[in-house]
Specification:
This protein is α+β, with helices and mostly antiparallel strands and about 80 residues long. The protein is built from 5 helices and 4 strands; from the N terminus they run αβαβαβαβα. The longest helix has 14 residues. The chain is globular.
Length: about 80
C-alpha cells in the first residue's frame, strides 16, 4: 500500500513579499520553498565554508531571517515559516 503524502505538508503556501524575492511569488508547498531556498543559497555561495550548517545571509535573506546575518539550517526553517501563509 502506497503511503499517502501528508496533506498539510503538501499544502501550497504563499510566500511573503520578502521571501518571494528569493523563491518567487507563486504559492508552493513548504518542501519546494526549502528546495528553492537551498538552490538560492548554493547559487550565491552563502553556505558557510567552515560550518556547513550555517547560512551567511545576503541582503535578501537577511530580510527573511529577521535581520540576522548568520543562521543555522534549523533556525532557517523556523524563520522561513513566519513568511508563509
Amino acid at each position: 500500500m502506497a503511503k499517502k503524502p501528508n496533506a498539510a505538508f503538501m499544502k501550497e503556501l504563499t510566500p511573503s513579499d520578502k521571501l518571494a524575492e528569493v523563491v518567487g511569488a507563486k504559492p508552493l508547498p513548504r518542501t519546494e520553498v526549502v528546495k528553492k531556498l537551498w538552490a538560492y543559497i548554493k547559487k550565491n555561495n552563502l553556505q558557510d565554508k567552515k560550518n556547513k550548517r550555517n547560512i551567511n545571509a545576503d541582503e535578501k535573506l537577511k530580510a527573511v531571517f529577521g535581520g540576522k546575518s548568520v543562521v543555522n539550517m534549523f533556525e532557517m526553517t523556523k524563520l522561513v515559516s513566519k513568511h508563509l501563509s
